[in-house]
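Please produce the structure of this protein holding adenosine-5'-diphosphate.
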Amino acid sequence: MISLRNRLVLTYALFICVSVLVMGIIINRFAEKLFSAFVTENINAESAEIANTISDQWDPNAHSFDVISVEAMGMHFVHEGYIVSVVDMNSETVWDARACDMQQCTMVINEITGRMENEFGIGGSFQTNQFLLSYEDIPIGYLNIETFGPYFYSKNESAFLFGLNRFFLTAGSIFIILSILLSVFLAAEISKPILKASEAARHIASGELSVRVPAHYRTREIRELSWSVNDLAATLENGERWQKQLTSDIAHELRTPLTCLQGNMEAMIDGVWEPTTERLSSSYEEIVRLNKLVEDMNRLSILEQKNLILHRTEFDLTKLISAATERFRPAALEKGIEITLVNPGEIIVNGDYDRLTQVFTNLISNAVKYTDRGSVTIDIAETAQYWEVSVTDTGIGMGEDELPHIFERFYRSDKSRSRNTGGAGIGLSIAQIIVSDHGGQIHAESKAGEGSSFTVRLPKGI
Ligand code: ADP
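Below is the modeled complex.
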């Protein structure tokens, strides 16, 4: 199968050759037409000039032509391609080129006929035109001029025409060579990145996801193609990384409590450990936590499916947030944290009550969970287009390196893991999906050691 590069070069080259050929033919025909019109006019002017010159050889005193001068001029005109004969008013020949030098006339006739037929492909024959000769308006005789018709080129004129054609041929050839070189360059510029992109796609297909193609090209479509290939590789790479992360996270989240539970059970079955109520209820709590984790995972996978159906109803957002806040008041009290809701009054929205409850429960739960002293403040503000609910705490906060990852599934900061807070790193992912399904956004600001602030923006129209 022909390669893209060769195909482009061939197409360009063919197009250029045909264009140059057609242009050459048109220019050549046009130039020849103009030139032949010019030459025909020249022949007519020259013939009139010959008539004048011969008339000048009239001797008014002798009432006859100066035959010696007429012969000298006549032979000169023969060399130019004009076979001249002069007759007087009595139809008697004064001078005839053919009679004077038949050999020379035949040579000129043959030469011009040959040149016009062989070199220019113009067939014709010598034709005679007659001119009346006069001296001071008195007729003195007739001049017969035989010339090759319809027109003929002198040696100089045919040399000029050949020069012109050679110029067109040389210029055309140089143009064709330059254009083909340019087309080779252009074809390479188009085909190279496409080849690179297809090669990269092959690598991606074989699982080499780290492959990237250069994307600095000037052609927009090619640049976009390179970007798409790179984006595809990056997305697949992220997906693969996420999948590995997910598998290891699930294994990690489940393995430790399961091993612990297994050990406890074995010890109790073997009679090493007495199955006290305390031990049994601790194991039970662990099972509850595991169950919750599996449930969270299930909920996340359902939420991540497209076209999530929201069960919208009209309700008071302030009431929902107030109820969520109250649920965490005992925990906050126990930790000695002040929890405050700045109540702005009734805000009627149209949304999924249960899912939005889940969002604010997650945010307030995190705020209480990651705060040891100080306060948790929930504030509801109004902008032109949004209701903005912010949950601000004075807790452990997060570093700049952690902040971009907190909405990723199963992401937990090292601090959070070491605290054994029991979370699975799913809460914020779930919150983000729910908020964006309501047409809103969720945004976090935080400083390590100083606290965090999560803001949920819900469009007013909901
Ligand atoms: P988790 O169940 O672990 O809390 P989330 O998805 O709710 O999972 O949160 C992801 C991570 O974001 C947490 O592990 C924690 O590191 C960080 N995080 C969330 N909220 C806060 C907060 N208010 N203060 C400090 N860190 C937080």
